[in-house]
Amino acid sequence: MSELSDEELVLQYQAQVNSPRSQPLLNELFARHHVRVAAWCYRMTGDRQWGADLAQDVFLKAFRHIASFRGDSKFSTWLYTIARNHCASELKSRASRPEESVDLGLLQVADAAEPVDVSVERQGSEHLLRQLMREVLDETERNVMIWHYADELPLDAITRLLNLTNASGAKAYIVSARRKLNNAISRAKARHKRPATQEVRDE
């Protein structure tokens, strides 16, 4: 069996799908590709256990639909297309939680030159931060912040997921988002400290 190509294994499986001899063919395909698919899923997610679980899902999905493989491409190309689509779908699903999931403590991680203002840690500040994220960040910046800080996805995985082609990838959006949030928080603090009489004159 080892002398057969992937594509030949698939053709044999398709020809005897209900035969007792069909399962060893799938086992051989799994043995050939599992390690690399699991490693690829790990690179996408940054989480070894989650990557291993996703790899299992990828093979289940591939084998469930293996009858649709027509040999127009290499089996490995077809398999990795399934892996890419499945990982992207699962990453987006995990990141679809609302802004309430953002951990403000994680936003204080010093991986940028300008940390988010500490005033966001005061009582009621979570509501302020969520509001400012909706108001001042574009969709990409908001997604990168949530995926990186709330879901703890590595920046290189986010860069691949969003197909970012800029030189710094997702990190550039982190820097931009934090700068916008700092400026917005400073403006909010200034408005809050302004005397009521001054506010009336400004109006």
Strand coverage percent: under 5%
Report the average pLDDT across residues. Answer: 77
- Tell me the total number of β-strands: 0
Summed up, the helix count is 9
Overall, the morphology is elongated
Residue windows where pLDDT falls under 50 for at least 5 positions: 98-106, 108-124, 196-203
Radius of gyration: 24 Å
Amino- and carboxy-terminal Cα gap: 82 Å
> What can be said about the biggest beta sheet?
none
| Residues in helix, % | 55-70%
- Whole-number total of structural domains: 2
Category by helix and strand content: mainly alpha
Order of helices and strands: HHHHHHHHH
Structure description:
- The chain has helices at 6-15, 22-45, 48-64, 75-94, 125-136, 139-150, 155-161, 170-193, 196-202.
- The protein has 203 residues and is mainly alpha-helical.
- It folds into two domains: 6-94, Rna Polymerase Sigma Factor, Chain: A, CATH 1.10.1740; 99-202, no CATH class.
